[in-house]
Amino acid sequence: MRIVLDGFKKGFSIFWDDSILLIVLNFICFLSLLPALLFYTVTNAVPSIVTLILNTVLFLPSAFFIFALYHVLFDCRRGIVVNYRVYFGYVRSTWKQALIFGVANVVAALMVGWNLRFYAQFHETWAGIMQAVFISVAMIWMILQISMLPLYPRLTQPSFKLALRNAGAIFAGYMLPVLVLAVWTVLFIVLTMLFQALGMLFSFVFIGALSEGIIGEIVIDLKGDSDESDADG
Predict the structure, then answer these.
(1) Helix, strand or coil for residue 181?
(2) Domain residues for 32?
(3) pLDDT tens digits, one per residue of 115-160
(4) Quick check: is 228 in a domain?
């Protein structure tokens, strides 16, 4: 529980210290989602497999901006001065890892979405069980992803495989803090759906700052000191 409390305090401190910059970066991340959101609004009345695929792919560009945001949040945690030039520098320097991360999540979303749609055609018990299985897999995948993003800036040789492995190890060893983070993320997503202004101004940075706070505290606890320059291994 100490990690959760310290992580929340650190997360709110990160946001408070650089709130103006982070709100602007949040708005940039929100703008990167606009093509997907607009496409969904237009095609929602006549959903199909094609529109589902296109809409999911349109979310891909947002990965570059969200990835850079987490690197900025890590700098904020360490007290490094950040600005817009630093942020867009991260967009350029991390694009390969962001692309891999984005493609992996697009493929995962398409697989889960297709299977849920497929099994929804049947009304037997087994079909309901299969839907529950894929929903459970999607939840575990989401938990791993929100743990991976704060780990990437800490890796001396970042890779999707290494970040996923470390996220899995953290989830296994620190299940309570990670589940609290997952509940916070889902709660804020729901609030964003109810109050769209949150998405424009706060959602990405609030979720990111709390992720950075909690995962950062876990990394410190694992290392046994305050030196968290990397999380390799």
Answers:
(1) helix
(2) 2-223
(3) 888 888 888 888 888 989 889 988 999 999 999 999 999 998 889 9
(4) no
